[in-house]
Amino acid sequence: MQLVVWGARGSIPSAPDDPSIFGARTSCVEIRAGGRRLVFDAGSGIVEFGLSLLADPGREIDLFLSHAHYDHMMGLPYFAPLYHPDFAVRLHAGHMLDGTDCESLVTAYMSPPFHPVTPKVFRAAVDYRTFTPGDDLSPAPGLGVATHRLNHPNGAVAYRVSWNGRSIVYATDTEHEPGEPDLALRRFVAGADILVYDTTFTDAEMATFRGYGHSSVEEGVRICRDVGIARLVLFHHSHKRTDAQLLAIEAGAQRLFAGAVAARPGLSLVAGAPLPSQSRLREPASAATE
User: Which GO molecular function entries does the Swiss-Prot or TrEMBL record give (predicted)?
Assistant: First the structure.
C-alpha cells in the first residue's frame, strides 16, 4: 500500500522560491492499493497525475474530493482521463452542507463565467457519487474507504483507505480547538500506518488565524503520539513558506516525532516501511515515478 504526493501546497499554487523542493502545486495525493490507483483532491497537482495515467493500463479511476475550495478543485478541468472515452472515472464528494449533490457541484464549478466549457465536454464515463460523511465506501473488493466530517468552513471530509491490514488517512483542511483534542477525529485515524494531516500553521500561529479552518504541525504530532500512528505527513503548506522555512518546520517536527516528514511532489511512502533518507528528501522532485 503506497502513498504518492502530487501536490502539497494550500490556498494558491505558489511558492516564494519556486522551483522549490516542496513545489507550488496544490493538494493532490494518490494511494495505490490492491492494483488500484485512488486519487484524493483535484488541486493543480492532479494535472501531472492525470498525464501519468495515460500510459497506465488501468482505466478505472476513483477521485475523492475533500471539499470544493478552489485550491482543491482547480486542476479538475485539466485532468486528462476525463477527456478519453476509454476511461471510467468515479467522482466522490460528501462534504456539502447544503445538500448539493456531486454532479451539481462539479457542474457549478465548470460553468460560465468561471470556466469556458462545462462537464458536457468530458468523454470518459463519469459516475458522480454523493455520500454522507460517516459512510463507508468500497471502490473495489477488499478495498475500503471510510469517511469522516472535518471542521472547515463550508465542510470537508477525511478519508481512511484500508487494504490488506494496512491503512492510510488523508485528513486535510481541518481546524482544531487549541487545548481541546478532537476526540472523534482521533478515533477515526487511530492506528493508521500513515496520516496525511493539515499542518498549515504552527501552534504559535493558531490564534492569529482562528477560523481559517486549518490546523498545526504540533497538533499533527500530538495526534500521532496519542493514537499510535507511525508516519505523519505534514501537508497543505502555506504558499508563503520558503523551502528554508519548511525544512526548519520539518526538522522541528522530527525532533518531536521521528516519523514526521513534510510532503513534496514525488514523495512516495509505503505503509509499514521506513521513511526515505533525508538526503533523498531534500532533492527537488518534479513528479512521482515510483
Answer: 3'-tRNA processing endoribonuclease activity
Residues 2-281, CATH architecture: 4-Layer Sandwich (3.60)
Q: Is the separation of the CB atoms in 106 and 122 below 8 Å?
A: no
CB atoms within 10 A of CB 125: 13
Which has the closest alpha carbon to 62: 79, 45, 44, 74? 79
Tens digit of pLDDT for each residue in 168-178? 999 999 999 99
Residue 92 and residue 64 in contact, taking contact as beta carbons nearer than 8 Å: yes
Cell of 162: 484500508
Pair 89, 126: CB distance under 8 Å: yes
- 117 grid coordinates: 466549457
Calculate ∠ Cα 238-2-46, nearest 5°: 50
Are the C-beta atoms of 263 and 172 separated by less than 8 Å? no
Q: Which amino acid is at 71?
A: D
Q: Give the bridge partners for 88, in sequence order.
A: 60, 125
Beta bridge partners of 64: 40, 92
pLDDT, tens digit, 9 for 90 and up, residues 128-141: 999 999 999 999 99
Helix (H) or strand (E) holding 143: strand 143-150
Residues 42 and 76 sit within 8 Å (Cβ to Cβ): yes
Beta-bridge partner residues of 41: none
Which runs of E-coded beta strand occur in the chain?
2-7, 28-33, 36-40, 60-64, 88-93, 125-130, 136-140, 143-150, 156-163, 166-171, 194-198, 231-235, 260-262, 268-270
pTM over 0.85? The answer is yes
Q: Is 35 left (phi over 0), alpha (psi -120 to 50) or beta?
A: left
